[in-house]
Design brief:
alpha/beta, six-stranded mixed β-sheet, single chain, 40% helix, globular
Length: 220
């Protein structure tokens, strides 16, 4: 069986003008993740990342402490859904500041809007729920194509939720539940071959479990 290590990016810049960049905390999370992979003796013979800045920077942080010589493949199917765009459609173009900058309000609204999106009740979304599911499936198929025994993918919380829900054959709404649990710079592990695809571990953060670095544990 081959292995897929599915990593959520490190903490981005929540509430800032440019969310799509790692915070200093995000960089440190990724360096620590790379060090854990190195200590486990892991090597990867395929690396795939989304096309967002926070995906590339997360891989760069991992590579500061883990030797990866191969060039990453870029697959936009690993990108996050456009939540700002979904909010814009939900609010008819005028999004309240608290929905973007207050964490509690943000996550409450995220849960509500994603449920409406899944039910095709968001008018003129940036992409349909069906298109989102299809591109995640395409990214997974690309990452897991024959020729690699251990794959590293760097992606976002939404694709992680969808991957886990799909692997477990869970109801679609489970994607939302999982999405809201995914920690920054966590990894989920899948095992696969040409016939099967199984979840083997979810949301692991051994690099952040020590009490001395508990301040590095983040969700947004």
């Amino acid at each position: 069986m081959a292995e897929l290590f599915w990593v959520r990016h490190g903490q981005a810049s929540f509430g800032q003008d440019n969310y799509d960049a790692l915070s200093e905390t995000g960089w440190e999370q990724c360096r620590r993740l790379g060090a854990v992979f190195a200590a486990q003796g892991l090597t990867f013979d395929r690396v795939v990342i989304g096309s967002l800045v926070r995906h590339r920077e997360s891989l760069e942080g991992i590579k500061e402490t883990l030797s990866i010589e191969i060039e990453p493949e870029v697959h936009a199917g690993l990108n996050e859904y456009d939540f700002h765009g979904l909010l814009g459609s939900y609010y008819d173009g005028i999004v309240p500041d608290e929905a973007l900058q207050d964490r509690r309000t943000h996550f409450l609204k995220l849960k509500e809007v994603l449920a409406l999106w899944q039910q095709n009740e968001i008018e003129d979304p940036p992409e349909s729920w069906g298109d989102f599911k299809d591109r995640i499936a395409d990214a997974r198929n690309s990452a897991c194509r024959p020729g690699a025994k251990r794959v590293l993918a760097v992606t976002s919380g939404g694709p992680t939720g969808q991957m886990v829900a799909t692997a477990l054959k869970a109801p679609e709404e489970m994607m939302i539940t999982v999405n809201l649990q995914v920690k920054n710079a966590s990894y989920s592990r899948f095992v696969f071959n040409e016939r099967v695809f199984y979840l083997n571990g979810f949301n692991a953060t051994p690099h952040l479990d020590d009490a001395s670095v508990s301040h590095l544990l983040t969700y947004s």
